Predict the structure.
Amino acid sequence: MSSPTAIQPIDEILTRFGDAPESVQKLAEDAAKAEAVLGLHGVSVTAKTPRWSAPAAKRSDVEKHFSVHNTGSDPMHRTVELPRPVTQEVADLFNRLFGRI
Amino acid sequence: MNSMVCCQNPEALSNSASPFTKIIALDFYDGPTGGILRCETCHTVYQFDMLDWDDHHQVRVFRLRVLPENSWEKSLQALEEAEPRPQWPVWAPCKWPSVHAREEANTKLSKILAQAKPAELLVAWLGYGERILAARKFPPKELDMEPAWLTVDDKSKFRDWFPMLGLSKEKANGSSVENNGGKTDRQKEQQEALRQFQNLADASRFKSEGPYPTRDELHERP
């Protein structure tokens, strides 16, 4: 008797809008503002893949370095939680994950 | 907060504190991108969605559709099981006790939003809506059929809405906030402040009759 095939969860593709690398300052400001509203120190990404080219990364790759939370009323909205303070290393890693540098 | 600003006079909204002091962010991306809001002055309730933004997602252009008067209370009732509890100026309902509760809330909200009148108001604000940069009324036909930015499936369909409000997306994008380029944080803060100041200046409709502005003109008195 063959063993049942394990069901692999489908990895999400997370999109972060904007082609240019984001600075420490911008990521820190976005994260701080989001924390006041969402309760999480992080920045937005969407699991809805646009039909046009945009910086994207697999959720599993992002989660190797940052926590990813399903947040907001939009079922496709995610928040990538950033450490506090946001350092240059964090910004570089974030930008590298989304293929900006 | 300036209690005199009101959505009924969009010209006066340019370069002002926002009268939209209560925003329910049903859609969110580094700030509200859609939802329901209320004018604090006249209590008109609107459904809003985002037509455009700058590359830094700081300046956002929204289309507003009037909702029936009782929509605000009905929306709060529809979301009464959501967490966190309402908080202002921006509330983003995030969690529900069950999938059923979430679906029920969405059904109620859909019925409320279906009553929206055609969009007639275009508003640009900074970030989370703390400051209005420009606003103007539009014929509903021009606004209503336009796709919201986050629903556009073809990049060529993106329309630059900034000039419609006397703003410049190039200037908004001109800041090097996203470009480290060896600049210090202080320099970047200065550039961001300059960028915001330029947007406010672009949004201003002030014009003196003479070579120097009079006291009445400066205070915009008739």
Residues 24-38 of chain A form the longest helix (15 residues).
